[in-house]
Amino acid sequence: MKVRFILNGKEVELDVSPFKRVIDVLREDLALTGTKEGCGEGECGACTILVDGRSKLSCLMLAPQLDGREVTTIEGIGSEDSLHPIQEAFIEKGAIQCGFCTPGMIMEALYLLKNNPELTRDEIRKGISGNLCRCTGYQKIVDAIEVAFIKTKRQDNLK
Amino acid sequence: MKDSLFMPHSLKELWEVIEHVPDALIYAGGTDLLVKLRKGIIKVGPMVCLEKIEELKVIEDRGDKVFIGAGVSHSDILRSDIINTNFPVLIRAIEVLGSPQIRNMGTIGGNIVTASPAGDTLPPLYVLEAQLELHTSNSKRQLPIDQFIKGPGKTQLKNGEILTGILIPKAYGFNIHHFEKVGKRKALSISIVSFCALLRLSAEGVVEDARFSWGSVGPTVIRSHDVESLLIGNRLSIEMLNRASEQVKKVIRPIDDIRASAWYRKEVACNLLMRLINYKDE
């Protein structure tokens, strides 16, 4: 089955099994292994990606659901030379331990930042309530998202 | 070719697919079905995904009622001014449904058709007396939600029929809109017991009207007119709520499962009703 969509700003066309999960399409067909599979049943948020700007779980979507959509994965938000402000904040605040939950956390944080003109710590906690960190580094993750929010807000104000 | 996933863009296309592949499994957000597929509870076969059908994604104010398309996602309900204004209990229930990602994917129609006794939108829809619009390619009918859901995972949905929308009469006159869910953790937990209440309290604290429903304490959501009529006409007090609690224990039918025992569920169902005392002095 032919599936065509925009992936991290570039058009992609694939011929895949209609029952292939999006996480497998990303990791196997497109070699984008930044998106992680944790539980595979929608409980952990490690596989979070953005589809048309909404955060979704790539383990609970089938490939044809991407057709005609705009998809952003962790690979699409910054580059090695120029990290996204959220990525910088995660490093600055030490919000990464084993790193497995980090891509999903950052994608959900991106969704939060894009959809909230104001963001309290409590709202950040609620925002990442669908993302598990089994190193339990939540405090620093919340710190990092808060810093990223303040920084990006300042940049927006300068524009 | 029949072993495929179909993504119709309109209801017209959907009816064609259903005619062509009558045994296809139909899903909306997929948050429940894809878990079952992965666990092998459901076998891979022809499927239809409804998420591209824009006709199913409208929320409309129709004067004395509101129409919510079955394909409206939980997050779109949270963002809707119409729903926030008219049905605060539905908003409160959806705020604690799943997680942000699940709310971006799952739909209100999916939550209803899944017919889990723990479905978070169901207790509010029962007290709001929601009507469901069901369509096939050539017929249309309407059913109240409590008649549509027959048991865990069981509904009145016929072959070739889909839930297209939910009609909710505006609940005028209730000044207390209450929802509470008890689970193991805040996000992503399946409710152990949930409780929904609409109350009209007079300035003197007399209950003029009341509607109550409980989730996860029986094969379907349970609404009890007996409990409601015990309170109507009386002043809200601990004694009255205690008396009503005795009735609650008679009408709910909880089971023991991995999340909680039936005994615990009974205690919690009554305690959640007792919470209404907090509104006494408001």
In terms of structural class, how would the helical and strand content of chain A be classed? alpha+beta
Percentage of residues in strands of chain A: 5-15%
Report strand order across the widest sheet of chain A. 2-1-5-3-4
Instruction: Identify the CATH class of the largest domain in chain B.
Output: Alpha Beta
Count of domain modules of chain A = 2
Number of strands of chain A: 5
Largest sheet geometry of chain B = 5 strands, antiparallel
Individual helix count of chain B: 12
**Going by CATH, what is the homologous superfamily of the largest domain in chain A?**
Beta-grasp domain
| Quaternary structure classification | heterodimer
Q: Overall 3D geometry of chain B?
A: globular
Structural notes for this entry:
The complex is a heterodimer of chains A (159) and B (282). With 159 residues, chain A is of the alpha+beta class. Chain A folds into two domains: 2-76, Ubiquitin-like (UB roll), CATH 3.10.20.30; 85-158, DNA polymerase, domain 1 (Orthogonal Bundle). In chain A, 36% of the residues lie in helices and 14% in strands. A five-stranded mixed β-sheet of chain A has the order 2-1-5-3-4, with helices on one face. In chain A, strand 3 (48-51) and strand 4 (54-57) form a beta hairpin. The N and C termini of chain A lie far apart (44 Å). Chain B folds into three domains: 5-49; 54-169, Uridine Diphospho-n-acetylenolpyruvylglucosamine Reductase, domain 3; 176-279, CO dehydrogenase flavoprotein, C-terminal domain (Enolase-like, domain 1, 2-Layer Sandwich). Chain B is built from twelve helices and 14 strands. Chain B has helices at 11-20, 33-39, 74-79, 81-86, 88-95, 100-105, 108-114, 122-127, 145-148, 225-231, 238-251, 262-274; strands spanning 5-6, 25-27, 47-49, 59-61, 65-69, 131-135, 140-144, 149-151, 154-155, 162-169, 176-182, 193-201, 207-215, 222-223. Chain B has a five-stranded antiparallel β-sheet with strand order 4-5-10-6-7. Chain B has a four-stranded antiparallel β-sheet with strand order 11-12-13-14. In chain B, strand 6 (131-135) and strand 7 (140-144) form a beta hairpin. In chain B, helix 11 (238-251) runs antiparallel to helix 12. In chain B, 46% of the residues are buried. The mean pLDDT of chain B is 94.
